[in-house]
Amino acid sequence: MVTIVVPYLGNQGAEVRVKDMKRLYGAAGYTFKRQGKGDHEIWHNERGEVQVFDGKDSDDIDKGLERAMLRRLKPKND
Q: Residue 37: which CATH number?
């Protein structure tokens, strides 16, 4: 079992960028699988879980989506 420590990325109103979230997902074992339509990228891990990133690396991620994406990185009880 791998434990991933997810740091708090945002600071006082600053938005988290797509490239920061990709870095976290990469550290969690996700890898780039293929380019999707437009700015979409499809990433997956060895367990078959899929994460789609939308937007350029410099784009901000909405706070609600940020929370949901960080929640997905928390280890599950298997």
A: 3.30.920.30
Euclidean distance between CA atoms 58 and 9, whole angstroms: 15
DSSP 3-31: ---------TTPPEEHHHHHHHHHHTT-E
Full domain range(s) for residue 38: 16-73
Residue 68 has pLDDT above 80, yes or no: yes
- What spatial distance separates the first Cα and last Cα of the chain, rounded to whole Å? 10
| Residue 4 domain flag | no
| Mean per-residue pLDDT, 45-52 | 93
